[in-house]
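Aim 2 progress. For S-adenosyl-L-methionine-dependent methyltransferase, the working sequence is reproduced below.
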Amino acid sequence: MESSRSLEHVLSMQGGEDDASYVKNCYGPAAALALSKPMLTTAINSIKLTEGCSSHLKIADLGCAIGDNTFSTVETVVEVLGKKLAVIDGGTEPEMEFEVFFSDLSSNDFNTLFRSLDEKVNGSSRKYFAAGVPGSFYKRLFPKGELHVVVTMSALQWLSQVPEKVMEKGSKSWNKGGVWIEGAEKEVVEAYAEQADKDLVEFLKCRKEEIVVGGVLFMLMGGRPSGSVNQIGDPDSSLKHPFTTLMDQAWQDLVDEGLIEEEKRDGFNIPVYFRTTEEIAAAIDRCGGFKIEKTENLIIADHMNGKQEELMKDPDSYGRDRANYAQAGLKPIVQAYLGPDLTHKLFKRYAVRAAADKEILNNCFYHMISVSAVRV
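Predicted structure tokens for this construct:
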């Protein structure tokens, strides 16, 4: 897989609205949004607004993807800001207008996003003006001092590129035999950690330029518990996470069947890293310009928990559901690497593996981290 030069042109959640789309498979992010909403509300209420401030407030959702989660986040921000402004203005409805920027990589399915935008805006209790801003959030996207609120939800675990060290065949950091870092050699994990740290600092530097003093930065990202060496500490969750065991097995099936060479498999790596709260705080401290208001570790239940009896009666359906869930986040980058035919075969093998999963009865949970910070 190539570096950031090409990754940002293919990295996206699966577009459209079919069974494998992100729109139909965003259960995890939706659960995380629900759990983080009280913290997001508190964060927005901490923004420094005074009577007679700018005639309109600018909000940016970075890594917005598509679907109801995107609109739900923005509606929360706009609603809380509206109530806060009403208090400032003595209980009357303020004249303030809201401008919302939905931003993601150019590979994002903005067509699907904007098709439902008008309905969502008109159905909202408070209207806002909307625009799309394509581009990587690891680069500058807006003029200096323009934004009042920036949110990024379930996106910052995605890196700007696969670390170059991981792609060096024969090196200690070479991730031979795997497509992600769970269970990989420590040198591989260290290379990912180094890239993740560099990326987060760069992200923060850009936002420091763009957010007004007193503005709010709210980040929700895939994370891991403090002190955990593994990306996914819980054994059951490690087995069932879409990036881990089943994914490696499906790629190995393609190799064993002679459909691809081992070298082809070894050239693909998933550009994701789950940080700890300490890693996030260290990056914020080095960047400067932000004061952390609050940090929370969230434990997200797998959407299949509680459906074990139903799933055991129809394991094939369970396998297809698991494969769809994996495709929602990975299909675009896999297809850019393997092409449509082999990508179809890969996720077909994934579904078969999932259907035969003996751990189907185990509940599993994933960790996410939410951070609210104020621009100082």
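The longest strand covers residues 211-222. This observation will guide construct design in the next reporting period.
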